[in-house]
Amino acid sequence: MTEDLFPRQPGDPVFREALADGAWLLRGFAFEEAVTLLIEVDRVLQQAPWRHMRTPGGLQMAVAMTNCGPLGWTSDARGYRYESCDPTTGKPWPALPLAFAALARNAAQAVGFAHFAPDACLINRYQPGTRLSLHQDRDERPLDAPIVSVSLGLSAIFLFGGLQRSAPVRRVQLAHGDVVVWGGRSRLAFHGIAPLAAGHHALTGSQRINLTFRQAL
Ligand code: MD3
Ligand code: FE
Predict the structure, then answer these.
(1) pLDDT 10s digits, 30-57
(2) Is the pTM for the entire model greater than 0.90?
(3) Best label site of 72, 75, 76, 156, fewest CB within 10 Å?
(4) CA distance 178 to 200
């Protein structure tokens, strides 16, 4: 399927859709900045290329990842953690682009989280068939800070569960330019991404790219 390059018209208002207690979907919030964001992703990749990290259990992750910002999320045989240097290059993670910081802050502010200043941005890449199994994000220190995620390129089906793994899972489509702010009660909800469907997007080709902004420390 080829996706529409212009789903939102200039000047359209931003609608906030409550997904759950504390979780807000801002459809198209990053649409106008998307080209800039993708140029910045390419710049990050020149310094910190995609890699498939290993879980503590020894499995290679299907999602390719990199990071920018003062801290980067990493996983290996020793566990999950945030590091200030990229283990594959030994150098600090690339700086957080100004456009990233501004977008994350503005999205958080739009749903009532003032002064969100992420110190970590995980960049995930999905290709057709890539999935992210149900998990919680619990490697961060302040659990009162929200997480902001930005979807770019191909659409994906986001799996949104509850506070227990066994809770029922809702399926929410996340499209190019969509931003979700996860805070409050939903901060520790189980979540994942269904296997990415094949497709083509004018800006990313056969990929979905997700930016996840967190305050790790
Ligand atoms: C809900 N990434 O990197 S972003 C992850 O699309 C991750 O790449 C997915 O889950 C992706 O950990 C989903 C949306 C997201 C991020 C953090 C959350 C949803 C969340 C934390 C709590 C609840
Ligand atoms: Fe997650």
Answers:
(1) 999 999 999 999 999 999 999 999 999 9
(2) yes
(3) 76
(4) 17
